[in-house]
Design a protein that fits this description.
The protein has about 180 residues and is mainly β. The chain is globular and about 45 Å long.
Length: about 180
């Protein structure tokens, strides 16, 4: 099997209804660049620090996700999902993806496609083309999505779509 023969997946957020954007930055990762080894599954597997600003004043909570649209599956691969971050939260420190104990307030992790309720760093098939890892912060108009901690990132994202008033993304690449 040659994974190189499959088409490039579209940028997933471009396929959703348009919403305003705001600024998402990181001292650990740079847009369009290679993901540093500290943040990949076979490296340090740390979640990168994220900072955001410029979101709408009516924001009531945030959802943070990391998605790989280039995984060789029909549905990509979810690497990280945190829901119900309060509107006062404007950053996550490096390593916040390790446990719910690292999160403030009512926020919690949902299990990613690896089955764990924590950050799972990039781990594309060896020899495949570079994969994109899209970190997204969704500003929501509700204080909670009212989903439990077993909801998949797909279910969380579906429910969040109807409450997203703005979104910020930061995309990096990684290849093994």
């Amino acid at each position: 099997m040659n994974l190189q023969d499959r088409p490039l997946a579209p940028e997933p957020y471009a396929l959703l209804p348009r919403v305003p954007s705001f600024e998402l930055t990181s001292p650990d990762i740079c847009p369009g660049e290679k993901m540093p080894e500290d943040f990949v599954a076979n490296g340090g597997n740390l979640s990168p620090a994220l900072n955001w600003q410029g979101f709408p004043a009516e924001t009531e909570s945030f959802l943070v996700t990391c998605f790989d649209p280039d995984a060789p599956t029909p549905a990509g691969f979810w690497h990280w999902c945190i829901q119900d971050l309060s509107s006062e939260t404007t950053s996550l420190p490096r390593g916040a993806g390790s446990s719910d104990l690292e999160l403030e307030g009512a926020a919690f992790h949902n299990p990613g496609d690896n089955g764990q309720a924590a950050y799972y760093g990039p781990n594309p098939p060896a020899g495949d083309r570079p994969h994109r890892y899209i970190f997204a912060v969704h500003a929501l108009d509700v204080p909670t999505l009212e989903l439990d901690d077993e909801a998949t990132p797909t279910v969380v994202s579906f429910n969040a779509l109807f409450h997203t008033i703005a979104r910020a993304t930061l995309t990096v690449e990684y290849q093994q």
